[in-house]
Design goal:
Blueprint (H helix, E strand, L loop, with lengths): L1 H43 L3 H16 L2 H7 L2 H19 L5 H19 L3 H4 L1
Helix pairs in contact: 1-2, 1-5, 2-4, 4-5
Length: 125
């Protein structure tokens, strides 16, 4: 019986860490998407400076989680979101209306990040 305790403990610890990681990434993604939705609203109101500030703040928040995300998430998804953040910031700085499509793409990329980290049978297999 004792020979099963260590493997069961390790599996329980791995499962708990996976669930906590999923929750942390979900909370981050919800926050980032909300920030980007605010930026979209500011652009719709032609308040480009406020939109630029919002995207900048969101990118700073995002950057603060980069080390964690590069350890726990798929690099392609993280790098794709980072590139979209930079593209959105550049488009907003020149007041290009195309930034709305890129902001939507960025929100989708963040959703993919959350989806790939979600604890599900699809992701386990």
């Amino acid at each position: 019986m004792k020979s099963w305790l260590i493997p069961i403990f390790l599996l329980t610890a791995i499962l708990a860490a996976s669930v906590l990681n999923c929750r942390a990434v979900d909370q981050d993604v919800v926050r980032w998407q909300s920030q980007l939705e605010e930026a979209e609203a500011a652009i719709s109101a032609k308040n480009w400076k406020h939109a630029e500030d919002l995207v900048s703040q969101s990118y700073e928040d995002w950057s603060g989680r980069q080390t964690y995300l590069h350890i726990t998430a798929e690099h392609e998804v993280v790098d794709g979101a980072d590139a979209l953040y930079r593209r959105c910031a550049a488009l907003i700085s020149v007041q290009d209306p195309e930034c709305m499509a890129d902001l939507a793409g960025l929100r989708h990329q963040l959703w993919l990040l959350s989806e790939t980290e979600r604890f599900s049978i699809k992701n386990v297999l």
